[in-house]
Amino acid sequence: MTVRTRIAPSPTGEPHVGTAYIALFNLVFARHFGGKFLIRIEDTDQKRSLPIYEENIYKALKWCNIEWDEGPDIGGPYGPYRQSERLDIYQTHIQELLKKGKAYKCFATPEELKEMRELAEKSGQKSGYDRRYRNLTEEEVAAREKKGESYVIRLKVPLTGECQFEDAIKGRITVPWSEVDDQVLIKSDGFPTYHFAAVVDDHLMKISHVIRGDEWITSAPKHVLLYDSFGWERPIFMHMPLLLGKDGRKLSKRRNPTSIFYYRDSGFLPEALINFLSLMGYSMPGDKEIYSVQELIEAFDPSRFGKSGAFFDITKLEWLNQKYLIAHLTEDDLLQRLKAWAFNDKFFKKIMPLVHTRIKTFGEFMELVDFLFINHLPYSNELLCPKEFTPEQAALVLQCIIWSLDAQQSWDAESLEKASHEVADFFAISHKKEVMPILFAAIMGKKFGPPLYASADILGKDRTRARFLNSIEFLGGVSNKKMNKLTAAWNKKEGKEFFLKNPSQQPVKE
Ligand code: GLU
């Protein structure tokens, strides 16, 4: 068998360390067995997919020294490698399933689906869809289509029995079919869902091993059923342990710095980041911790994959980075790498407008813009909390700033300014005396510095987000209960209640 592996990222956000982690093992696996490794871009979510995110995936993986043999950017024998360019292929394949009676058209309206969901919730059932269109006659289907009724195409999941498949990491998996939904394969706009497109593409691209994160294991029964329905040979599935934050929950941009660019911009070595990621899912014999990708490829043994989630501990990554730096960089290399990182004309040119009229001597340059070159800021409650603010209130402000920037889908200077006004209005607090000082402190670790918004722009989206998250954590975080309350208030755009000083100021209930 020719080994062929792939990563299939969706270009819907900043390039995630989890993508590098999964890509690494797909690469190592293919290289060890003399096979090929490819990238497929899963951009069927038309609303959320953006070309810039796709470009950033390539940029980030290249920075990590991860190279692929086939992909949208370089082509290959099984292209196109971008799903939005393969729509006719999915159409042909769905017709085949319909003909075989393995899939069916479902005409449920949004209102019907809502009713079914509510009913299912009440009766404690898992599945929201009651399969009411599964057994229509051909004539009934034709009549509805003639009337122009909109439909999706669903997979006919067996009503009894169980799904069994081998996972080469986790062993035999058995799932009763009663726990599996009649998955939508083609949406009403004619676009395929991830499940359908991924299986068709994995088959046509001759993927031998599907190596991906644990979060997809619950989808595997649907995928297995699709392979069987087409009469195709199943690939070997390998579900890798997830990356976990130090709170034991899945690494998420809502709580952790997850963008590969964050690690690049904070001055980590890509070799060390990759080495660290490999430790998350695999252990070398003798618990060896520092090695190159080439060493890993040579020594690779699939039975040494980890089975449970691994903690992505940034302190350990820093430790490993230092070990790498000492062992692999000469002083001259270090100088070159530092220059390439931030001590170069390109970066300094961005900073000049901030410092030009603000320094008396060159010696004050670093005093003014130190925060662009350091990772650990001297946070304190005194620094982060404006007068009369509790630490939690300051954290709430930062949380809403993050939400506002995410909603704007932009973290540039202008968007941050807009966000800070929006949040001041939301809480009915002072923009200048309360919101801006919190942002200043979180971004710069000091009370005064160069202009706030332009500074954040240069610091970059990923480091700015990380500083907001770190500040929130430093302030003691936001409890789940408060977070729910804040979310509800944010949706209603009414957050005064979080800053009322005493009960007599409670708004009168209407
Ligand atoms: N598009 C999916 C993702 O974004 C791919 C999952 C898979 O590897 O099958 O992670």
Protein architecture, described:
There is one protein chain. This protein is mainly alpha-helical and 510 residues long. It has a domain at 381-498: Arc Repressor Mutant, subunit A. The protein is built from 21 helices and 11 strands. It has helices spanning 17-32, 51-63, 87-99, 110-122, 138-146, 194-204, 220-230, 260-265, 270-281, 293-299, 314-328, 331-341, 345-355, 363-369, 381-384, 391-408, 413-427, 431-444, 452-459, 461-474, 480-492, and strands spanning 4-7, 36-39, 103-106, 152-155, 162-167, 171-176, 184-186, 209-213, 236-240, 243-244, 310-311. Helix 1 packs across helix 10 (293-299), helix 6 (194-204) packs across helix 7 (220-230) and helix 18 (431-444) runs parallel beside helix 19. It binds glutamic acid (GLU). Residues 8-10, 42, 194, 198, 212, 216 line the site of glutamic acid (GLU).
CATH class of the domain at 381-498, named: Mainly Alpha
Shape: globular
In DSSP terms, counting alpha (H) and pi (I) runs of 4 or more, how many helices?
Answer: 21
* C-alpha-based Rg, rounded: 26 Å
Strand content: 5-15%
Unique ligands: glutamic acid
Give the CATH topology of the domain at 381-498: Arc Repressor Mutant, subunit A
User: How many distinct beta strands?
Assistant: 11
Q: What number is the mean pLDDT?
A: 94
In the predicted model, the low-confidence regions spanning at least 5 consecutive residues are none
For the biggest β-sheet, the strand order reads 3-4-7
Overall helicity:
40-55%
Architecture of the domain at 381-498, according to CATH?
A: Orthogonal Bundle
Give the biggest beta sheet.
3 strands, antiparallel
Structural class: mainly alpha
Span between termini: 72 Å
